[in-house]
Design brief:
Chain B: This is Tungstate uptake system permease protein TupB. Chain B: Its main location: membrane. Chain B: InterPro entries: ABC_perm_TupB-like, MetI-like, MetI-like_sf. The complex is a heterodimer of chains A (about 260) and B (about 240). Chain A is about 40% helix and about 25% strand. With about 260 residues, chain A is an alpha/beta fold. Chain A folds into 2 domains: about 130 residues, D-Maltodextrin-Binding Protein, domain 2; about 110 residues, Periplasmic binding protein-like II (D-Maltodextrin-Binding Protein, domain 2, 3-Layer(aba) Sandwich). In chain A, a hairpin with a 2-residue loop joins strand 10 and strand 11. Chain A is globular. The termini of chain A are far apart. With about 240 residues, chain B is mainly alpha-helical. Chain B has one domain: MetI-like (MetI-like fold), CATH 1.10.3720. Chain B is built from 10 helices and no strands. In chain B, helix 2 packs across helix 6. The termini of chain B are far apart. The chains are: A alpha/beta (about 260), B mainly alpha (about 240). The interface between A and B is large, with 37 and 36 residues.
Chain lengths: ~260, ~240
C-alpha cells in the first residue's frame, strides 16, 4: 500500500522540528498556563522544542513505562519513586509545590469551612447529603484524595461520584451538580467555569502537593533523548527554570513555588 | 421564558468565534490548517482504499461477500476511542510498530482517521454500486466484462453519487476527537486540531470559548459540504447536458 507512505511523507514537513523532547505530564501544569509561560524561555535558550502530552499522572507514568516520552513531570511522589526503583527513571528531583484545596458550593451545605482538618471536612461531606465529585482516574490528585478520607472514600455511586475524567471535566461536573471536589490550587484559580463554587477548606499540611521531574532511563527505553532530556531536567531545577516558575502569576497570586534542591 | 443570564454562554460563544476569525488568531489558524491537513489526507487515503473495496463488494460474486459486507457495515460504528487505544498500543515505543516513532505525530492521526473513515466510504460505495449493478447487469453480460472492469465502470459512472460517501467520511474525520486525542497527544503546535482544542478549553472551564470554536467547526463543515455539493451539481450538469 503506497498511500499511507505518501501521507507520511507529506506530513513529515508539518511535524518538523529537528530537536525536540516529549514530556509526559500531569494536566495542572498545562491547564494553569505554566508551560506557556516557562517553556518558551527554555526553548529560546536551548533550541530544544518541548512537546507536552498532558494526561493524568497515572496515565503519564504508564505512557512513560511504554517509553513514549523522554521526561516525566508529575505529582505523586510515591509512584514516582517506584518508577525510578523499577528502573524506568534515572533520578527523581523535586521541582515545585502548590497545594490541594477542597472546593464546593458557596453556601457550604456540609459546613466544611468550620472543620479543623481536611479529614474532618471530608467526614462532614460524607455525613451530609451533599455530592462529592472524585476524579476516579488514578491521577495524582485522585490518589491523594482517596488517601485523605480517614475511613477510605464512601461507596461509589451514592453521593460519591467517580467521574473517571480529568480535573477540568470533574470540576465542570462539580459546578453543574454543586458538588464538593478536591483540586490543586493552580487548576482551580485558572478554571473559568466556577459557577457558584469557591474554596472552602485549605491549609492542612496533608494538602501539600509536590511536583517532581524524572528523566526516563535509556537502559529501559533506548529511544530516550538522554542529553536533551537531562538538559530540561537540569534547567527546570536550575536557577533560570526555578525563577521562571516563581514569576508565573495569575494577578497577584503565585501559582507554583519552586523548591528544587541543588 | 428565556432567562437572559442562561443564554449568556451562547452569546459569548458567538462573540468569541467572531473575534477569533476576525483577528485571524494565529493559533487558531495553525490548528485549523492541521485539522484540514489531517482530515484531507485521511479522507483521500480512505477513498483510495474504500472506493475499489466497496465496488468489489458491490458487484462481486464471491464466497464470503455477505460476511464482508456485514463486517464493513459493522466497522462503520467503530468507537474512535477504541481505534485510538488500539493504535496507541501498536505505535507506542513498546508496541510492534514503535520503531517508526509515529506516536504523537500528525501521521498517527491520519492513520487513526483512515481506520475510522475507510469503512464508511467502502460501505456506502458498496451500496451505491450494488444498486447500479442491477441496472447495468444485462449490459455487462452482453459486453462480457470481468468483475474488476465492472467495478471500475460503476465507480466512474457513479462518481457523483460517491461524493456523498466521501463527504460522510469527511464529516466523521473532521468531528472526531477520541482517537486523535490518544494517538496525537494534543501537543501544542504539533498535533493540536480543532476538536482536541475544544476538549482542552472545555477542561479549562472556558465553555464559551469551546463553544465558539465548535461554531467555527460547524460553519466550516457546512462550507465544505456546500462546496462539494455545488461542484457535484455542476459536474452533473456538464456530464448529462
Amino acid at each position: 500500500m503506497k498511500a499511507p507512505m505518501i501521507a507520511a511523507a507529506l506530513l513529515a514537513g508539518a511535524a518538523q522540528a529537528d530537536t525536540f523532547i516529549t514530556v509526559q505530564s500531569t494536566t495542572s501544569t498545562q491547564n494553569s498556563g505554566l508551560y506557556d509561560a516557562i517553556l518558551p524561555i527554555f526553548e529560546a535558550e536551548t533550541g530544544i522544542d518541548v512537546r507536552v502530552v498532558a494526561v493524568g499522572t497515572g496515565q503519564a507514568l504508564r505512557n512513560a513505562r511504554s517509553c513514549d516520552g523522554d521526561v516525566l513531570l508529575v505529582h505523586a511522589k510515591e509512584a514516582e519513586e517506584a518508577f525510578v526503583t523499577d528502573g524506568f527513571g534515572l533520578t527523581r528531583q523535586d521541582v515545585m509545590y502548590n497545594d490541594f484545596v477542597l472546593i464546593g458550593p458557596v453556601d457550604d451545605p456540609a459546613n466544611v469551612a468550620d472543620q479543623n482538618s481536611i479529614a474532618e471536612a471530608l467526614v462532614a461531606v460524607a455525613a451530609s447529603d451533599a455530592p462529592f465529585a472524585s476524579r476516579g482516574d488514578d491521577s495524582g490528585t485522585h490518589r491523594r484524595e482517596v488517601s485523605l478520607w480517614p475511613d477510605g472514600p464512601p461507596a461509589s455511586g451514592t453521593t460519591y461520584l467517580e467521574t473517571g475524567q480529568g480535573m477540568g471535566a470533574t470540576l465542570n461536573i462539580a459546578a453543574a451538580l454543586q458538588a464538593y471536589s478536591l483540586t490543586d490550587r493552580a487548576t482551580w484559580l485558572t478554571f473559568a467555569n466556577t459557577d457558584g463554587m469557591t474554596i472552602l477548606h485549605e491549609g492542612d499540611p496533608a494538602l501539600f502537593n509536590q511536583y517532581g521531574v524524572i528523566v526516563i532511563s535509556p537502559q529501559a527505553c533506548p529511544s530516550v533523548k538522554l542529553e536533551d532530556a537531562q538538559r530540561f531536567a537540569d534547567w527546570i531545577t536550575g536557577d533560570t527554570g526555578q525563577s521562571a516558575i516563581a514569576s508565573y502569576r495569575l494577578g497577584e497570586t503565585q501559582l507554583f513555588t519552586p523548591n528544587a534542591t541543588r | 421564558m428565556v432567562n437572559k443570564d442562561a443564554m449568556e454562554p451562547f452569546t459569548t460563544a458567538f462573540a468569541n468565534a467572531w473575534h477569533l476569525i476576525w483577528t485571524a488568531d494565529a493559533d487558531l489558524m495553525g490548528v485549523l490548517a492541521l485539522s484540514f491537513q489531517v482530515t484531507g489526507l485521511a479522507v483521500l487515503v480512505s477513498c483510495l482504499i474504500g472506493f475499489p473495496l466497496g465496488a468489489i463488494l458491490g458487484v462481486g460474486r464471491f464466497a464470503g461477500r455477505s460476511a464482508s459486507l456485514v463486517a464493513i457495515n459493522a466497522l462503520m460504528g467503530l468507537p474512535p476511542v477504541v481505534v485510538g487505544l488500539g493504535l496507541y498500543l501498536l505505535l507506542s515505543r513498546a508496541g510492534p510498530l514503535g520503531v517508526f516513532g509515529l506516536l504523537y505525530t500528525p501521521t498517527a492521526m491520519v492513520i487513526a482517521q483512515t481506520v475510522l473513515v475507510t469503512p464508511i466510504v467502502a460501505a456506502l460505495t458498496a451500496q451505491v454500486t450494488e444498486e447500479m449493478h442491477r441496472e447495468y447487469r444485462d449490459l455487462f453480460a452482453t459486453m462480457g466484462m470481468g468483475q474488476v472492469q465492472q467495478a471500475a465502470t460503476l465507480l466512474w459512472d457513479g462518481r457523483f453519487a460517491l461524493t456523498t460517501a466521501a463527504l460522510a467520511g469527511t464529516g466523521r474525520a473532521f468531528a472526531e476527537v477520541g482517537a486523535v486525542m490518544i494517538v496525537g497527544g494534543n501537543i501544542d503546535h504539533v498535533t493540536r486540531v480543532m476538536t482536541t482544542t475544544i476538549a482542552l478549553e472545555t477542561s479549562r472551564g472556558e465553555l464559551a470559548l469551546a463553544l465558539g470554536l465548535g461554531l467555527i467547526l460547524l460553519v466550516l463543515s457546512l462550507a465544505i459540504n456546500a462546496g462539494v455539493m455545488g461542484l457535484r451539481n455542476m459536474g452533473m450538469r456538464l456530464a448529462h447536458g
